[in-house]
Amino acid sequence: MSGTGTARGRIDKRQAILDAAFTVFAREGYAQAGVDVIAAEAGVAKATVYSHYGDKESLFRETVSASADRALAENLAVVERLTGAGEDLRATLETVGSKLLECYCADRSWALRRLLAAETGQFPDLLDVIHTRAADRVAEALADRLARLTVSGHLRTADPLLAADQFFALLSGPADKRARLGTRRTPDAELRAIAEAAVDTFLKAFGAQG
Amino acid sequence: MSGTGTARGRIDKRQAILDAAFTVFAREGYAQAGVDVIAAEAGVAKATVYSHYGDKESLFRETVSASADRALAENLAVVERLTGAGEDLRATLETVGSKLLECYCADRSWALRRLLAAETGQFPDLLDVIHTRAADRVAEALADRLARLTVSGHLRTADPLLAADQFFALLSGPADKRARLGTRRTPDAELRAIAEAAVDTFLKAFGAQG
Amino acid sequence: MSGTGTARGRIDKRQAILDAAFTVFAREGYAQAGVDVIAAEAGVAKATVYSHYGDKESLFRETVSASADRALAENLAVVERLTGAGEDLRATLETVGSKLLECYCADRSWALRRLLAAETGQFPDLLDVIHTRAADRVAEALADRLARLTVSGHLRTADPLLAADQFFALLSGPADKRARLGTRRTPDAELRAIAEAAVDTFLKAFGAQG
Amino acid sequence: MSGTGTARGRIDKRQAILDAAFTVFAREGYAQAGVDVIAAEAGVAKATVYSHYGDKESLFRETVSASADRALAENLAVVERLTGAGEDLRATLETVGSKLLECYCADRSWALRRLLAAETGQFPDLLDVIHTRAADRVAEALADRLARLTVSGHLRTADPLLAADQFFALLSGPADKRARLGTRRTPDAELRAIAEAAVDTFLKAFGAQG
DNA sequence: CATGAATGAGAATTCATTCAT
DNA sequence: GATGAATGAATTCTCATTCAT
């Protein structure tokens, strides 16, 4: 087992650097973030960061990618909940809506979105990667569920992808307004209220019994 | 009128610097933007930028403020159009929605939003200023109009401000998805389609004849 | 008399600039002193300073020269007092010594000496000018008086210039130590004590009745 | 001994920077001295200067402190020579006086004094440090010796510290006059003459057989 | 003549990156 | 493989000086 500690150590160091990088990039932005600072936050020497990730730009890409993968997983897990079943559609949508909002409003999510917005000019490819690999897939997954609910007669959506976008918009739009780009943490109760209002509007528009 | 050329010159220089600053900040971000580059873009010497605006930070603040003021004015002008009249409410909403989306998707608007997102950490006060001075006022103005339309029996909104937020969300949310943080210009026709879909959903939920 | 005010004005302005320059140069040193600051202190525009004195270096030279001339005049006036007469030689020497020390320890004198020390490297000629035009002439004048006192039998100085230098050294050396390069103002009483001690030693060495 | 070259290298670099800094500060003054120039003189990169000393001000302080420590050591070593013994007091005093003058007139000493005079306004604390840590201690040491010589009957000094100050003044005062703030190197022979004259006057005033 | 504005050259300081150990 | 030290390139800001009015 003597080597395990070291092997772990190496992996842990990689991860520690990635975590530190996210923290620092999120706090200071790409350009302002110092590699020294990241190294210090990770508890390693600056040169170690370089030996692991090559240069600042690569480190940034990997940091953002890892963060996006994580966000994707969280969001998909929530959407999965939207099974066709649910005796009470409204309650189910409200729960899913709330959970989506919680993901959306998590500190890490805001940090990631701010980072993307900030560095779109310098790293245009990151946006594509993340949209195609994460955001769009969540929307598609959501559209799938809405389509099934339409087929099963619980909803009436002519264009499920549009409906999914609008559902998400009804959630995120009002939440955006309160969150001030993530600088204010919105209480869960408020998120819940936003979700209920969103579902209410959504069902008025797309509910089967309209 | 003697001396007008020169007097204008001073003012023009201030304005040229501000325009150049917006261009460069928008393209490169606050930290990456070089004052040299801004000066060159404005056609003045670096020191002139400093003599006018003191330091880079102040220049940034003034640039952002001016840009926000301009955006506010444009948005309010659009909302004004939503007069209670309109024989055809749907058509009116669609027009207003389209125009709002055009403002929202203008290059300058995206640039401003990206800049705000990017620099929220370094300039937290800018967000407050802009939200209270611009964004919230547009929402309030929109809510006012919706309230009047409710009073006049054209709409049924229990909470006009919420309805306004949702209306705006139904517009901006789907547009966001296509615009990729402003890196893709969405054709006006597509914006129009988004607006029509938004109005459709909105009227299903809040229309008087529902 | 209408023109007088203006003519005065011009001269006053030159003088105001010179005074301001001395103040600022003395406070901040040549390199650190900003022409803006001097102009502000003088209550004129920066360009006015240039139109009067050409450039910073010339202004510095004139400032230092003027200050040195003034110091020379003050010192010579004191040495004049050392008339051959004086029933009480000791008392006369003590008075002259005190007065010399007061000149020596005046704020302006210290400021001038600090300035000279500071800028000797950049303005080597200033030193020569001042030494030959001021310091040496004071020493010579003092030596003259001591020579006369020797001829009249009041003193025994083999080399009056050496005696003058030593007399001055006995005054300024101990004062230097207390003044900390002019950062501490030494009370007149203390200066008097230094002068008395200096005269005491001087008379023991050069007094006629030894 | 492996690695000595490198380990030495680091220390040597620190020292090389300090030496270069003294040279350049002495030649150009604090404000005019460019860190580039210091770095070039030391044969290192500008950033290396910063990584060792933080900023220009700290570098200046350390440079001056080091120089003052060195001057103190040299002066004390000379004063030590003034042992009570000495069959020939006059010769001993002349030797000590000469040596003190040589220290006093060394290029480094003048440079240090000019630097202190120049930057007293910006760095008032340096003066205090140097006076209490160096100059005063030399004076005290000298006073100690004179006191012993008084006790042993070789001198008559009522106030040994005053006598020490006057002794030093008789040396440095006339030397000051010739050295023109260190811009002229005074030949040792002349210094010797000054010392002899100083001792002559001093012994007339304080000699035991007077 | 006095001025406000404009500027070019320069100076301190920082930081991503590389090397020797 | 991890590190401390060294560096070159960039960047913000200053200031003496000059013009047009």
Automatic annotation (TrEMBL), chains A, B, C, D:
**What keywords tag this UniProt record?**
DNA-binding
Origin organism is: Amycolatopsis roodepoortensis
| InterPro entries given in the database record | Homeodomain-like_sf (IPR009057), HTH-type_TetR-like_transc_reg (IPR050109), HTH_TetR (IPR001647), Tet_transcr_reg_TetR-rel_C_sf (IPR036271), TetR_C_Proteobacteria (IPR039536)
Describe the location of the HTH tetR-type domain by residue ranges.
11-71
Q: Does the keyword DNA-binding apply?
A: yes
Q: Name one Pfam family in it.
A: TetR_C_7
Quote the DNA-binding region ranges, renumbered to this chain.
34-53
> What protein name applies here?
AcrR family transcriptional regulator
By its UniProt entry, which Gene3D superfamilies does this protein fall under?
A: Homeodomain-like, Tetracycline Repressor, domain 2
